[in-house]
Design goal:
The complex is a heterotrimer of chains A (293), B (436) and C (311). Chain B has 436 residues and is α/β, with parallel strands linked by helices. Chain B folds into 2 domains: 214 residues, Rossmann fold (3-Layer(aba) Sandwich), CATH 3.40.50.2300; 152 residues, Rossmann fold. Chain B has 10 helices and 15 strands. In chain B, helix 7 links the parallel strand 8 and strand 9. Chain C has 311 residues and is an all-alpha fold. Helices cover 75% and strands 3% of the residues of chain C. Chain C is globular. The mean pLDDT of chain C is 90. Classes of the chains: A mainly alpha (293), B alpha/beta (436), C mainly alpha (311). Chains in contact: A-B, A-C, B-C.
């Protein structure tokens, strides 16, 4: 294929990847930023979102869009509830100690994975796309749904930004992130904010998964890659910077697509990985981070 | 060969139900009671033979492992109904290896030294085989893998490791090349995962195609960590006659769907794939309609062919699979039909080998290996429902027929069955010269 | 001889004696656990003592594994030389990575080490022609002999594992009690203040990483030579997370914590998988329970509550 169309295809693919990654990473960034903990089970919340989406869509008959819309509502809610419960029962008792949280969330990861394997099974199962059309360019065909994912993800991120900057809940979160002690002094229920943030982070992961599941299938091990990528995006973007997170997601998503045009696939992966490392070596606080990480 | 009075009515770990155990008991008792069948009663232990089953219950191989487990249970139940092995009932001891080579080695140790198994069998993923086989050799534990990897016949393993139930990838791929080049085209582009299994496909198929006067014009190796594939498809050169694909893992359906989206309604080359790309996936899944008219390798036809043998039908019924290759209890649960027969046939080879060797206990393990090495032809039968086979005792590898199927009306229909000779290649090792 | 030194020598003596008492299965397990505990101890140097949370130690373990494995496969080297090569490979890779990664701290350090390790893993796959990628390769018995004794033999293997583990553990003990160990602890507790006191923090951290890399390389080489298999799984991210888990479970910055954590984790999986197919669930709940009630790891909590002399 000629370079022009090839680059166009790679950019489209990169944009879809970036859109879902941004949403998932935003969840991690929120938790990371406000609570200062690494949630290793973040990828499992993503996986749960996809599995629940499969469940909901396979129970609701009729047009695929009906089931999909139901999944967009049900999956994040259920995942949010599970996350809030985990936060209250485990993380709070650990006093959000960073190292203890890593072990606890690794434990949570095993529990959720086993639950999915025992109930949902080991197969990768498809969810039908809510809309079914294909755009035929002169050089290649492209899924119309993938383009919708980009739009939907952008809309959801705008929503998150509005909540954080324009609502009382968002104000409380930002206050807690800035200084939990002072926030508590101003009668902000820091404990409940933490539970809410943890749930919201998981819900964003679940939303990302519901969007991706008509493209990729729901599988009980699918949480691994989104966790790593989100983690990288959050650090590259700069700790606690939501704008940085989104920009980093776009950079990483797009570069992954475009580097693959010029190098053999595995070599391209090696180079993309090293690129991330060198960005951090060069700017240890991330691209948009102000404070030391 | 000695017979026993009655097998102990001990139910086995997680695999045999009370009912099958009782059936086995009844069958064994009936056999033992039959006049003339009992040369010397009480000559040996009637304790069950313990066969260690190393299964991928968790990890990346879990979808395969589940069906390997079902087939093993069905085969063991059948063997026990028929009086067990040498009159002794069979107990399957199952251990999960997490599809991990380190845990695989530990599981082999556990089966040998903790459970006291007579042998181990059933491993599928080739990195787990490679990780586990050295330990099996050191422990002198017969190790029957069902992996389709070329590791056994390449000579890289040991005297105790055998693959008598499924043809290896080198043989499969060589058998495909003549048909592909004669019927689909001579310029081939290959897409395969960038690890050893994919490299075997790449190397053996390139070689076989060249021998047929064809050429592999592009080789696209996909990194195993990849979850989206569209960005690699523009690498497929324009002059490609045949696109050859083989993918494994949970990303396979994404891969095939994206391939369909990429070509869309435009012109495309002929497509030939290994069913691994769609194993355990329903062909009628939305988005796969473009596969209509493309071809797949199958180890055993998923959709019951009209001319299927009675043995195939018997096997299909016993492992609980309907004529469409799905579970009888859940039509959405698609079997790994092209591979899982290997467990059934392996267990029957083990039975034949143990009975030929007069196997009594772990002291006879070397005799068991020799008995299996002495095997040659395996006729199509209940024991070998996939078809007749030829076993090569020197390389410890079995050779069988392969199938090429065409997608027609969202079903796979067999269009070609290779001969066993198509897949033969010169020996690369003679394990029989190695000491025990 | 102090209480602490006595305890550690006592453990080694107990391990030496245990091989004559243990049934075959546990005998084999303990040999493997000792090799992996050496890896965990290596991790403990950087994470426990120097406070650097690395997610790239699979790369050092893998460097040792492949140095010993490839040298034996293509160069026909003997096992002792393989072990030396493994130590060197681990130390060199750790030093090179450290020169770059130590420009960062905290979570950025985690990501940089993770990325280098991932690049290392992919490199193993990329050179599949030599490494056989994920499938890996099996070492010939000839490459696995020491002084005419086969490492495939259970007794030889056990002694070899004990030697590697003993060397790494005593090395950790010496380091923990040395002036250098105290500098590392000072860096962990307050890096700025240590720098202001005139210590070369970068140099100390680089040395800690190199020592840790050498130990991890030794463990990797020992794994290849003792168990005869070399494969890419051991260079994957999973093997960067496992030592973190073992160390946290046993107790970070305790000399015996890594061994205890490795031992417990192994038997947790082994025992739970024999009575339920849902063994991951048991492991998960056990981890959560342990961290709720022993937040500093088992030995860390013990040291805090009962035995302050524990190194």
């Amino acid at each position: 294929m000629d370079l022009g169309p090839y680059l166009m295809l790679a950019s489209l693919e990169g944009a879809v990847g970036a859109a879902v990654l941004a949403l998932t990473a935003l969840g991690l960034s929120l938790v990371f930023g406000v609570m200062r903990i690494v949630n290793v089970a973040h990828g499992e919340f993503y996986m749960l979102g996809a599995v629940l989406a499969w469940w909901v869509t396979s129970m609701i008959g009729g047009h695929p869009a009906l089931g999909f819309v139901a999944a967009m509502v049900v999956a994040p809610l259920v995942v949010g509830l599970i996350a809030a419960a985990a936060e209250r029962l485990v993380l709070r008792r650990l006093n959000y100690d960073p190292e203890a949280t890593i072990v606890a969330t690794i434990g949570l990861l095993y529990v959720i994975q086993q639950l999915a394997l025992s109930t949902y099974g080991a197969d990768a199962r498809p969810v039908p796309a809510p809309i079914d059309f294909r755009i035929q360019f002169p050089w290649f065909g492209y899924s119309g749904y993938k383009l919708c994912v980009i739009v939907a993800s952008a809309a959801l991120m705008l929503g998150v930004w509005l909540v954080l900057t324009r609502t009382r809940a968002g104000l409380m979160m930002r206050a807690t992130q800035y200084d939990p002690e002072t926030a508590r002094a101003f009668a902000i229920p820091v404990g409940r904010v933490y539970a809410g943030v943890f749930a919201a982070g998981a819900m964003l992961a679940a939303l990302g998964a519901v969007l991706i599941v008509p493209i990729q299938q729901a599988h009980y091990l699918m949480g691994h890659d989104p966790l790593l990528l989100s983690f990288i995006v959050v650090i590259i973007g700069g700790l606690g910077s939501l704008r940085g997170t989104v920009l980093a997601a776009v950079i990483i998503g797009m570069s992954d697509g475009i580097i693959s045009v010029f190098f053999s696939p595995t070599l391209a992966k090696i180079l993309a990985t090293l690129l991330v490392a060198f960005v951090l070596v060069w700017r240890p606080t991330g691209l948009f981070g102000a404070r030391a990480a | 060969m000695s017979k026993t009075t009655a097998p102990e009515p001990r139910t086995t770990r997680a695999t045999l139900t009370r009912r099958t155990a009782l059936k086995g008991l009844a069958g064994g008792a009936a056999l033992a009671a039959a006049p003339g069948w009992v040369p010397y009663i009480e000559a040996q232990s009637s304790a069950p033979l313990k066969l260690g089953f190393q299964v991928h219950r968790t990890g990346i191989g879990a979808a395969y492992g589940r069906w390997y487990d079902r087939v093993t249970t069905a085969a063991a139940a059948l063997i026990n109904e028929g009086g067990g092995i040498g009159g002794r009932p069979v107990e399957i001891v199952t251990e999960d290896d997490g599809t991990d080579p380190k845990r695989g080695a530990e599981v082999v140790e556990k089966l040998a030294t903790q459970h006291g198994c007579d042998l181990a069998f059933g491993t599928l993923f080739s990195h787990v085989v490679m990780g586990s086989a050295p330990r099996a050799g050191e422990l002198k534990l017969p190790y029957f893998v069902v992996s389709e990897g070329h590791h056994v016949a390449s000579g890289r393993l040991n005297r105790y490791t055998l693959q008598p139930g499924i043809t290896d990838v080198k043989s499969q791929v060589r058998a495909m090349a003549p048909w592909v080049t004669q019927n689909l085209g001579k310029k081939v582009t290959m897409i395969f995962p960038d690890y050893a299994f994919g490299h075997d496909h790449r190397d053996f198929f390139s070689e076989a195609v060249a021998a047929q006067g064809g050429e592999v014009i592009e080789k696209i190796a996909i990194p195993p960590t990849e979850s989206s594939f569209t960005k690699y498809f523009p690498r497929i050169p324009r002059g490609t006659d045949v696109l050859y694909h083989v993918m494994v893992g949970p990303g396979v359906l994404t891969f095939v769907k994206e391939l369909g989206e990429f070509y869309g309604t435009g012109a495309r080359p002929a497509i030939f794939g290994f069913i691994d790309s769609l194993e355990a996936v329903d062909i009628a899944t939305p988005g796969l309609d473009f596969l209509e008219g493309t071809y797949f390798w199958e180890g055993m036809p998923r959709y019951a062919p009209p001319d299927a043998s009675e043995h195939e039908g018997f096997y299909r019924q016993r492992v609980g699979v309907d004529a469409n290759g799905a579970s009888m209890s859940d039509p959405k649960d698609i079997a790994t039909y092209a591979h899982m027969f290997g467990c059934w046939e392996t267990l029957h080879v083990i039975k034949a080998g143990m009975e030929a060797a007069g196997y009594q206990g772990p002291a006879d393990r070397a005799k068991l290996i020799e008995a299996v090495e002495a095997m040659t032809g395996m006729p199509e039968s209940r024991e070998h429902p996939q078809g007749d086979k030829v076993f090569n005792g020197r390389t410890h590898q079995v050779f069988g027929h392969q199938f090429i199927s065409r997608v027609e009306g969202a079903r796979l229909s067999v269009v070609h069955k290779t001969s066993i000779e198509d897949g033969m290649y010169p020996d690369e090792v003679d394990y029989t010269t190695q000491p025990f | 001889m102090s209480r602490a030194v006595g305890l550690h020598l006592g453990l080694l003596a107990a391990l030496a004696a245990a091989q004559f008492l243990l049934p075959d299965y546990h005998h084999g397990n303990l040999a493997r656990i000792m090799v992996l505990a050496a890896f965990a101890s290596a991790y403990n140097i950087t994470f426990g003592y120097a406070g650097m949370l690395s997610l790239g130690h699979a790369m050092f373990f893998g460097a040792g594994l492949y140095a010993a494995g490839l040298a034996a496969e293509f160069g026909g080297t003997a096992a002792p030389l393989g072990l030396v090569l493994g130590v060197l490979a681990g130390a060199i890779v750790a030093t090179v990575v450290g020169l770059l990664a130590l420009r960062t701290t905290g979570v950025s350090f985690m990501i940089v080490t993770l990325m280098f390790a991932q690049a290392g893993f992919l490199t193993v796959l990329y050179f599949g022609e030599f490494t056989r990628g994920d499938e890996g390769f099996v070492l010939a018995p000839a490459a696995r002999t020491v002084l005419g004794l086969s490492l495939a033999d259970p007794a030889t293997r056990y002694w070899a594992a004990l030697c590697v583990f003993g060397a790494v553990m005593l090395g950790s003990l010496a380091l923990a009690r040395s002036a250098f160990g105290r500098v590392l602890a000072a860096i962990r507790e307050n890096e700025e203040r240590t720098r202001m006191l005139g210590y070369d923090v970068f140099r100390a951290k680089l040395m800690a990483l190199a020592v840790s890399g050498a130990m991890a390389g030794a463990a990797g080489a020992a794994y290849a030579l003792l168990f005869g298999y070399v494969g890419a799984t051991f260079a994957s991210i999973q093997y960067s997370i496992l030592p973190l888990l073992w160390v946290l479970m046993g107790g970070a910055a305790t000399v015996l914590g890594p061994f205890l954590g490795t031992l417990l984790m192994f038997y947790l999986i082994d025992i739970s998988s024999s009575f339920t197919t849902a063994h991951m669930m048991i492991v998960g709940f056990a981890l959560i329970g342990l961290i709720l009630f022993f937040p500093k790891g088992i030995l860390g909590t013990l040291r805090e509550r009962a035995a302050p002399w524990l190194p």
